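Let us work through a complete example step by step.
Step 1: write down the sequence.
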Amino acid sequence: QVQLVESGGGLVQAGGSLRLSCAASGRTFSSYAMGWFRQAPGKEREFVTAISWSGGSTSYADSVKGRFTISRGNAKNTVYLQMNSLKPEDTAVYYCAAGTTIATLRSYWGQGTQVTVSS
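Step 2: predict the structure and record it as C-alpha cells.
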C-alpha cells in the first residue's frame, strides 16, 4: 500500500506563501494520481487540487484557482503545492491524497500538515 508524508505547513500572514510537499512510498501500482484536501475546524474535508501521474492533467477547487499550483517532482512520487496570496480562509489541516486516478484520490491519505494564515 501507499504511505504519504506531508511537510511544509506552518504559520503565515495573509498574503504570504507556503509550499507543501508530499512524498509517496510503498505503492502497489505503477502509477497514481496525487492531490490535496483540506479540513478546517468544524468543516467537512474538501478537495483542493489534484494532478495525474503524468502531470498532464490538473484540477483545482474554485476557491484556490489562480493562487495555488500543484506540480509533480521529477520522480513522480512527490507532489508539491505552491500556495500564494494566502487568506485566513485557507487555514486548515492539509492532507495529501493518492489514488489510481484523480477520481479515486481518497484511496490513500497522509497524516496532514497544519496551515495557519493569520490576518
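Step 3: interpret the result. The chain has a mean pLDDT of 92.
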